[in-house]
Amino acid sequence: MMDELIANLPDFLANGYDEDVRAFTRSIQAKPQQVFLFERHFDALAFDNLIHWTGTPSQDATLAKVAASEEQMRQFLEGMGRPYESYLIVTNHGTEITFEVGWRDQMAGNVVWDRWIEAVDDPVMAFANAGFLFDLLDYQCATRPTEKPEPPLYCYHPERFKAYRDYAEIVAKFYRQKVEPQSGMLTVPQLNEVMRVVFTELNRRSMDYPRRLKESHPAPSLVIEAEETLATAYGRFVQAGRQIMDFPPALTEMLAKTDIDDIPLNSIKLPYASQYLYFGPQVALELEPGWFVDGAYVEQRGLSGDVRFTITAAPDDHSLSRQWYLFPEAEYTQDFVESFRSMDLATAIDTVLSDRLAALKAHQDRNGGDITAAVQAEFVKNGVAMPDAVRVVDVGPQMAVTRDEIARRRHPIYKAALQLAVNALCYVSAYPDDIETVWPEGTPVSLKEKVLSGKGKEQMRAKSKLAALGYVPVHICGKRIAEQRTLHGIHPQEHAHVSTHWRRGHWRNQVHGPARSLRKLIWVMPVIVGAKDHDDPEAGHLYLVS
Question: Cβ(203)–Cβ(244) under 8 Å?
Fold first, then answer.
């Protein structure tokens, strides 16, 4: 039947898109080989002016949209300097189809230019109508892809990081098996191996995202830097046992009102080799527009006092977490090692910024621009031919200016976030009994019971299943603080009377023990005071005994 229809195709199509044509295209729309055959003959007849096709207004509008996208792509590629083949992929989802327009590059392979989904009245005619515009064609049938659901513990950075990156588990396994656990430090070959895994997924996802939509996106190097920071922080976090410490709003508010600048870094004791401290999005700490500081990875780096802080931020628009390969996550990281060990926090933070800005200034002063000739010379020296039509541009000095702006802009927020993180660590060190380990709300009850009361393999399997579903145990800190605030009637500041304010707290490094040779941190807590005589506390003091 198909061969007979093809032989009589000019007569069959003479009346335009009538019921007979619609019935035919409907009968073959799930058969890609027959759709290809129809398109090829339809294209040939139109080229030879043997048919003058009249489609529906919907079909004409679809063709115009595809043609406009193809024209924009050709204009974009005019200066590329090497041959390419254009392609169109039409994927039939039933009532909707996906159009993908792109080109096949000699070096990079398929590059997506544009992609969109729309409802059409006839997928086969949509494909046949537009086929003549492209060198390569593909037609396929598939269900419409669905987005991965938001993880149940999205609020915690390690869980959202893992949920949206395929490479996360590979990096975690690498840390567990190959990285020295005491310091967590990577050798140069190990860092290269981790970044190879990151690059592979980053490139795959980036190449699959329409090039037409990337013009206003940040520089890829900023994405790479953010991923290196977060991937290594996550790997160390997993290696140390996935320790999440949650500081509820009542405690976080008080820690933010506590001075910490004069505490030496080497007096901070970490409960684990690495932990993630969660404070919830802090509206006063906007690291980048729409990105609010919500926590920090804190890692031990070897000797006592050597520590790395990586501040994380949560986006107001959760979809940005899915598009990490396009939009760099707002973060700020810093090692405090060697000479920083005995510094107080304020001095260490300011010294780090000064050093960072000096290094960026040195990069800005370098010559950049087109370095194709220099790279070609290096290729020749090594007996290798550099590919034709490749131009190499050094954007290092230009990017140093951008990084300088980012460092200066983020520094005040980073400083406040770091002070909050150090306060949290001091609290954990001073009051270890005020920590309760719980399974988050929503954890499947049957699996949780097996973890809590099961034994051996049953317990391990249940814990593994919960992790796969996105549930992990969390250390809740400061329960006694919340209880005492309720007891004393102390409410968050936004609910307090307009005449009240916080009297800031601080930490005392108190001497104790034999011959007064030991030190322990004592928290002199902040209190809310009112507009009364002598600034008396409005609701009394809170006391915790360590």
Answer: no
pLDDT band at 386 (very low <50, low <70, confident <90, very high): low
Contacts of residue 441, defined as CB under 8 A and 6 or more positions apart, other chains included, come to none
* Amino acid occupying residue 82: R
Q: CA 32, CA 255: separation in Å to the nearest integer?
A: 63
* DSSP bridge partners of 512: 518
Token readout for 94 is: 């039933």
The Cα–Cα gap between 350 and 370 comes to: 36
Coil, strand or helix at 442? coil
Cα-Cα-Cα-Cα dihedral sign, residues 461, 462, 463, 464: positive
**DSSP H/E element including 199:** helix 188-207
Distance between CA atoms of residues 10 and 100, nearest Å? 29
pLDDT tens track for 82-115: 789 999 999 999 889 999 999 998 877 899 999 9
pLDDT, tens digit, 9 for 90 and up, residues 247-306: 999 899 989 998 877 777 777 788 999 999 999 999 999 999 999 999 999 998 876 668
In this structure, the number of other CB atoms found within 10 A of the CB of residue 202 comes to: 20
Structural tokens at position 544: 């915790």
Residues in the chain: 546
Question: Mind listing the pLDDT tens digit for each residue in 171-209?
Answer: 999 999 999 998 888 999 999 999 999 999 999 998 899
pLDDT band at 141 (very low <50, low <70, confident <90, very high): very high
> At 83, is the secondary structure helix, strand, or coil?
coil
Give the closest residue to 127 by CA, choosing from 250, 433, 535, 136.
136
Closest CA to 326 of 315, 338, 310: 315
Instruction: Give the Cβ contact number of residue 195 at 10 Å.
Output: 18
Mean pLDDT in residue range 389-404? 72
Joined together, the tokens standing for residue 25 give: 């295209």
387 Cβ contact partners less than 8 Å away, ≥ 6 residues apart: 107
Straight-line distance from the first to the last Cα atom of the chain, in angstroms, rounded to the nearest whole number: 87
